[in-house]
Amino acid sequence: MVQTSERLASTAAERYLLVYMIAVLVIVTSLVIVFFVVFLKRKNKILLDKVKQQQAFEAEIAQAQTETQEQTLKNIGWELHDNVGQLLSFASMQLSILKMQVADDVKDKFKDTSDALKDSLSEVRSLSRTLNNEVVLNIGFEKSITNELNRLKKMKFTSAELKIIGEKVDFKDKKHEIIIFRILQEFLSNSVKYSEAKNLNIILDYQPENLVITAKDDGKGFNVNEIEKGSGLINMKSRATLVNATLNLASKPNEGVELTLCYPLYSFLEK
Q: Could you tell me the keywords of this UniProt record (predicted)?
């Protein structure tokens, strides 16, 4: 009986010890898991904070670059309007005075030069307006695009048209208006310099949640993979990032170029 009691007591003690060890093991395991989860969360938070800080830093750099570029363009616009414009006006006036002092059979020879000066003066004034962001804001986004297309049409294109779909929505953030206009200017400038296109077309599609802008030319196109790292495309994409827009450039040799910009309307709609 004594031995049986001792065995029962020993068995109970072993059972309690086993339960205790299992409980300790469960607690330790739980603590390790909790510690690991907390560690991962802190690590992920630190990494996320670093990413956000890097993105904020890059955004600030891009914003500073954009503001510097805008000020530079404004200064160039003033220079063109005030100085170059005045010189061309003076040259045109002097040519008119000289034309009055020559014989009638010589006056016709002044016509081509006089017309060239007048066209140059008109072009300089038109260009100076598109470079000045205050002028762009004053006349409006769509009118600025129309003026730019009209200016380019006079230069070399057979047609340069703007089409508007949907109901117009005014920009809440005027800086976004300027940035998107500069993206389109960059595209149009590249079309002038490289595309050998005859026709330009821009579509503003005001959708319920997005403004989708499509700009096309019918030029010689290019291989997108070869131009992917070009400064023009990088500049356009960095500007698009500043306004939370997505930008895509599609082209193939001999098939022209198409730019698609999707700008979220909620970023400038009144709440």
A: ATP-binding, Kinase, Membrane, Nucleotide-binding, Phosphoprotein, Transferase, Transmembrane, Transmembrane helix, Two-component regulatory system
